[in-house]
């Protein structure tokens, strides 16, 4: 006879995977159009990319409040509330385009960022329904949704950019709201048993945030996630600018980013199995090595092949590093501490992403900026990689 709890767990993972595909399609819309709309609405062309940066800040700022809310009322109710923020964000952004108001458009992307904080925790919600080695597989399955999100988001932009005559791009942000509505309908169907830690728990249980942050296990797991995601954002943000500066076309740069996104999410079909076989620390370490190889490739030449191969290595490295680090985080907390640990981790990770995107724009436009950025990757990778090697050698002993 099939275990009802196991059946609910698998159903939750399926729902979260589809929700990741739909809800995760919002960021590509913002990244694709944020700078273009910002350039049209902003009083100063130098402020054109501010809406995208504010989106990243919204994700970082929203992680801890989202974790607190879900810890208090449960994931399902928290995700429904987050989707409502996403619906509002898309409508505010669309209204700002119609009203030609730059500040209001930035508010819309900030709301989208707060919604993104809920989307980013889908991978953790998947682990709540399983145990042991299945946690890594559950994370990997949900991340597959990101592969479809990378296709859905740009297609929404293509189909809707001129759908409202005289107000270009407004319909694309209405489309973002529709995607959030579809996500709301999905997450409202999540089900956890009453005995599950998803239910309302004692908010003061477990260690304090300070004690968690000082834990060596948490420092290693969160540090690996910060380096994996931060370096990916750092190099990815700068690569199209560097390619155009080296004489490559915008179309070639765009194609490179498409290959990069496929490399980011494509391996998720097998990453969970690799973690189950080799261990989360080894897969995370492999991801960091691939990110370093990305920079080796970038420093070896400025041809089209060098850029494209570097972006592919960066994408696969991010997948192994980030999913491995996420699986490591699930070993760092008790059920009472889950919300605090996951929220603190995502605050650190997406805070680093926002900072990396700012730094990338500043450095890539300096003399030898592209080379300098890639040289900076090596010491950043070496620190967590060293401790990961010590970790799995100690486990083997």
Automatic annotation (TrEMBL):
One MF term in the entry's GO annotations: transmembrane transporter activity
Pfam families registered for this protein in UniProt: MFS_1
InterPro entries to which the protein is assigned, alphabetical: MFS, MFS_dom, MFS_trans_sf
Keywords associated with the record: Membrane, Transmembrane, Transmembrane helix
Transmembrane residue ranges: 12-36, 48-70, 77-96, 102-126, 138-160, 166-187, 218-245, 257-276, 283-302, 308-332, 344-364, 370-392
Domain Major facilitator superfamily (MFS) profile: 216-397
PANTHER family tied to this protein: MAJOR FACILITATOR SUPERFAMILY PROTEIN (PTHR23534:SF1), MFS PERMEASE (PTHR23534)
Protein name per its UniProtKB record: Putative MFS family arabinose efflux permease
């Amino acid at each position: 006879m099939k275990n009802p709890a196991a059946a609910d767990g698998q159903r939750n993972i399926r729902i979260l995977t589809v929700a990741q595909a739909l809800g995760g399609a919002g960021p590509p819309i913002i990244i694709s159009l944020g700078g273009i709309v910002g350039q049209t609405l902003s009083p100063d062309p130098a402020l054109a990319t501010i809406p995208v940066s504010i989106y990243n800040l919204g994700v970082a700022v929203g992680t801890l409040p989202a974790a607190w809310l879900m810890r208090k009322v449960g994931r399902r109710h928290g995700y429904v509330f987050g989707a409502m923020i996403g619906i509002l964000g898309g409508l505010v952004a669309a209204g700002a385009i119609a009203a030609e108001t730059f500040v209001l458009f930035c508010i819309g992307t900030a709301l989208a960022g707060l919604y993104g904080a809920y989307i980013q925790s889908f991978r953790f919600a998947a682990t709540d329904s399983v145990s042991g080695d299945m946690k890594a597989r559950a994370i990997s399955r949900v991340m597959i949704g990101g592969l479809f999100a990378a296709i859905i988001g740009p297609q929404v932009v293509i189909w809707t950019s001129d759908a409202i005559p005289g107000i270009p791009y407004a319909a694309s942000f209405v489309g973002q709201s529709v995607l959030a509505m579809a996500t709301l309908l999905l997450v409202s169907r999540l089900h956890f048993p009453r005995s599950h830690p998803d239910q309302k728990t004692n908010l003061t249980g477990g260690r304090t945030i300070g004690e968690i942050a000082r834990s060596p296990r948490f420092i290693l797991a969160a540090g690996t996630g910060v380096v994996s995601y931060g370096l990916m954002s750092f190099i990815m943000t700068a690569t199209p600018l560097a390619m155009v500066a080296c004489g490559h076309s915008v179309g070639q740069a765009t194609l490179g980013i498409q290959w990069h996104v496929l490399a980011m999410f494509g391996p998720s079909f097998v990453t969970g199995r690799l973690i189950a076989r080799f261990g989360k620390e080894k897969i995370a370490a492999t991801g960091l090595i691939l990110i370093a190889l990305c920079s080796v490739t970038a420093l070896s030449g400025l041809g089209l092949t060098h850029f494209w191969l570097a972006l592919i290595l960066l994408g696969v490295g991010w997948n192994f590093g980030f999913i491995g680090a996420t699986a490591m985080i699930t070993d760092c907390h008790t059920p009472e501490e889950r919300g605090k640990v996951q929220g603190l981790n995502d605050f650190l990770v997406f805070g680093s992403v926002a900072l990396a995107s700012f730094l990338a724009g500043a450095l890539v436009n300096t003399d030898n900026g592209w080379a300098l950025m890639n040289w900076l990757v090596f010491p950043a990778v070496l620190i967590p990689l060293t401790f990961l090697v010590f970790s799995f050698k100690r486990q083997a002993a």
